[in-house]
Specification:
alpha/beta; 8-stranded mixed sheet; Glutaredoxin; about 200 residues; 4 helices; single chain
Length: about 200
């Protein structure tokens, strides 16, 4: 399988910006504010809704979890890589979001796409002092690939970092590509509105 290249990230990000600019139809799902944006990113709603297939998630510690274990919760799946500078800035904020996520009923799942897997990710997280963030590995690109990837995956990487919001019915509601301050009051209010939809 092809690893995701920096060129694919940039071209995917440009495609996502174009898609969000062209999107004009009214959303079918209520709750998440389609107008939510940050200085570098905008939430893009996914329509129509589709149910995710059963996923096997590989934890950093080697254990596995099934996606069914996350059902009935709103989940933020955040994809990142060690070679991605915005990911480096975002990961500590994702960890802080995880620590306060019970207040807004959102589960945070960080997924590294690094081909080196655990050997690449563990020392990187230690360096960042990120130790409490639920971290999973997708070195083979089973969960997500860039557009035009070799296999069909549940998520498409339009850029990095990229986070997908999945509702309690296992339907991806939308995504936001680019660095996000997950601890800002605006972002927390947005996530809370999605969780309560």
């Amino acid at each position: 399988m092809n690893p995701m290249s920096r060129r694919a990230v940039v071209s995917g990000a440009l495609a996502a910006l174009g898609a969000s600019a062209a999107k004009s139809e009214a959303p079918q799902n209520a709750g998440c504010d389609e107008g939510f944006r940050t200085p570098s990113s905008q939430f893009v709603r996914l329509e129509p809704s589709r149910t995710l297939p059963e996923l096997a998630l590989q934890r950093l510690d080697g254990r596995s979890e099934r996606f069914v274990d996350f059902r009935s919760r709103v989940v933020l799946f955040s994809f990142w890589a060690t070679w991605c500078p915005p990911c480096r800035r975002e990961l500590p904020k994702l960890e802080r979001l995880h620590l306060m996520a019970r207040d807004i009923s959102v589960e945070v799942v960080a997924i590294s796409i690094d081909r080196g897997g655990r050997k690449a990710v563990e020392p990187y997280l230690r360096e960042l002092k990120v130790s409490k963030l639920p971290t999973f590995l997708d070195p083979e690109g089973v969960l997500a690939q860039a557009p035009g990837g070799t296999v069909v995956t549940p998520f498409i990487l339009w850029g990095l970092p990229i986070s997908f919001l999945v509702n309690r019915l296992a339907n991806p509601v939308g995504y936001i590509a680019g660095e996000v301050d997950w601890t800002s009051s605006e972002t927390l209010a947005f996530l809370a509105s999605c969780a309560n939809a």
